[in-house]
Amino acid sequence: MSMNATLNNPHDSKVSPVIMLEFNELTPTLMDRFIMEGHLPNFARLRNESHVFVTDAEEEGEDLNPWVQWVTLHSGLTAAEHGVKELSSSYQLDTPAIWDQLSEAGYTVWVCGSMNPWYSEPLNGHLLPDAWSAQTSPYPVGEFEPFYNFVRKHVQEHCNKEAKSSWRSLIEFSRFMLRRGLSLETLLAGVKQVASEKLLRKNVHWKRAVLLDRLQWDVFRWYYDEYRPAFSTFFLNSTAHYQHKFWRNLEPEKFVVQPTEKEQAQFSDAILFGYQQMDKIVGKVSQLAGDHATVILASGLGQQPFLEREAEGGKRHYRVKSAKTFAEKLGIAGKYSYEPVMADQFFLRFELETNAIVAANQLTNLALSDREAFYVERKETELYCQCRARGVMPKDAEITQLDGGLSLKFHDVFYQVDGVKSGYHHPDGILWVSQPAREHIVHDNKISLRTVAPGILGLFGLHPSQVATQSQAVKVEEVSVSQG
Questions:
Q1: Distance between CA atoms of 229 and 418, rounded to whole angstroms?
Q2: Are 3 and 453 in contact (CB under 8 A)?
């Protein structure tokens, strides 16, 4: 099957615009549960007007990470074929993404926050990268920088108490939002969040993630209303974050490391809260789409309880405190940029390859008591690194050099990302396709995540072979939804 059995002329003004909601790692089983319990009326309505699929990422291990799988969804290629393994590395891809193909065919596109994106210039529209893709610039140049830079700072360093935004960046961000759709509803939500944290001293810092969702929705809506793109994406990650962090509060009976009564009182409904906030946005999207737009909900993959390391107290993540730490504590020399990404991973990008080689040797020579302190992978001038600490690190933990010499206190270099890992990735994802006819069919067989890109292009009259290999072009028949 293809996602559009009746192909339209690529320049036919009657082609239905497509809005793809990319709600990262929403889980089919939890979605069904929360809908059945009556918590998600807008999701329920959208599902009842859609062709309903479960996608299979068809990968495991490190290839099941979302920054790999969203590239698969946007390209139609397997992880082995596109070769993207890390966040902020897709900019090197030559394979066109969905939006590149549509742009080339004359359609306007609006890519809002999609994970690990890449594009070819000129793009017929706008692209705002996710908060971790430092190597992919917003398009057009100068359009989104005040928003993008402010959001990146707060997303990447949300657990770092030493990371502060400048007043200048805050003012520039505020000006951007006032000119690009800031709603009164979002403004009041921000005031309520600040008041709860600062005045009422409530432990609600974790809810800031959905405030970012609101801000990004305001930006998405403004550009959609202004330019009316033929194809648009809208990516959110907050609920994926909540699932990773709070699954043991959702189902404590499955875990050895139990939350305290206080934690359980605060976080037992945290994951449901995330789904409910996204449910509100789905309601707004339905209004924006009206009767003529196709709405696609895709989650890329899902999650499940993370039960490894429970006997050791649960898995923890640690991150380097700041860019200065490398020079002042670890002695890393040369000109480079420090780019933290998700969890305990980061990039060091050097101007000179000689400095990158020296730094790689320095970092791999550092050890914790029972393991290397860093995982390091070098590609020319670029180091992809990860802190190797996984358990609870004692206050007197040290970092030492394998060949003797340097000895540092672990907590002078690293800080713990709050919480204990509770959820991890599952290959099953959500795919709902709601076309103007709003026909509801539940498809029992899982479909490959690779078939989504060719299927979307088919809705616009573009041949699937433009993004799929010959073998994949055959498999695209597994995912067709007839044109309504």
A1: 39
A2: no
Contacts 24+ apart (CB under 8 A), 442-448: 442/52, 443/51, 443/52, 443/53, 445/478, 446/53, 446/54, 446/55, 446/56, 447/53, 447/54, 447/55, 447/56, 447/478, 447/479, 448/55, 448/56, 448/58, 448/475, 448/478, 448/479
- pTM (global) more than 0.90: no
Question: What is the spatial distance between Cα 20 and Cα 110, in angstroms, rounded to a whole number?
Answer: 10
Please tell me whether residue 456 adopts helix, strand or coil conformation. Answer: helix
Alpha-carbon dihedral of residues 128, 132, 133, 138, nearest 10 degrees?
20
Q: C-alpha angle with apex 269: 266 to 275, nearest 5 degrees?
A: 135
| Residue 265 CA: distances (Å) to CA of 32, 204, 249 | 24, 12, 9
How would you classify the pairing of strands 125-128 and 51-56? Answer: unpaired
The residues with which 234 forms a beta bridge, in sequence order, are 21, 112
Distance, in Å, from the CA atom of 63 to the CA atom of 247, rounded to the nearest integer, reads 22
- The whole-angstrom separation of Cα 322 and Cα 414 is 9
334: left (phi over 0), alpha (psi -120 to 50) or beta: left
Q: What angle do CA 112, 336, 71 make, to 5 degrees?
A: 30
Rg of the chain on CA atoms, in Å: 23
Amino acid at 19: I
80-122: per-residue pLDDT in tens?
999 999 888 888 899 999 999 999 999 999 999 999 999 999 9
Exposure letters 247-274 (e unless 16+ CB within 10 A, then b) = bbbbeeeebebebeeebeebbbebbbbb
First to last CA, the chain: 15
- For residue 129, whether the previous peptide bond is cis, meaning omega lies within 30 degrees of 0, is no
Going by C-alpha positions, the residue among 16, 15, 37, 28 that lies closest to residue 431 is: 28
The helix/strand/coil state of 291 is: coil
Higher per-residue confidence, 162 vs 277: 277
Compute the distance between CA of residue 452 and CA of residue 148 in angstroms, rounded to an integer.
28
Q: Which residue is listed with tokens 């010499």? A: 405
125: tokens are 């529209």
The C-alpha atoms of residue 299 and residue 309 are separated, in whole angstroms, by: 27
Predicted local confidence at residue 203, as pLDDT: 81
